[in-house]
Amino acid sequence: MGDFVWKEVKKRNLSLNAENVGKVAQEMRKKYGNTVWAEKTANEILQNQQTSVIVIDGIRSIEEAQFFRLTLSASFKLVAITAPDEQRYKRAKQRKRADDSISDRDMQKRDERERGWGLEQVISEADITIDNGSSLESFREKIHTLFSDELLL
To answer: Would the pTM of this model clear 0.90, i.e. be above it?
Structure first.
């Protein structure tokens, strides 16, 4: 879903950084409602769907999850991927993506903003929760199991 936020940031000729991405995401939610990014994502999926399994990354509000349940499929499963804050912050710094915060304080501010959108409720109401608190290899194994055991079906 973040791709649509990035697209809006670029459309406004703003630098692609954590501050601008956060501002645009918040502004659009206030102006068009909490499902604005879910609507853009669902429209893209419905226009270009070529597979029966679709992974949507970036759900931040329960309204977005509910929108996907109603719009896309009754088989929609909400998967929460969790990790300790310290580990998430370290990984974000190493990743060096354009919209990643670079300081712990900036990351905390981002977390506060996303909690304000309802992220904690999204996590608590997930159909499946995956702990990503260990290695990348362990995480990949969990994701592989998730799909191969047909837990999503």
So the answer is: no
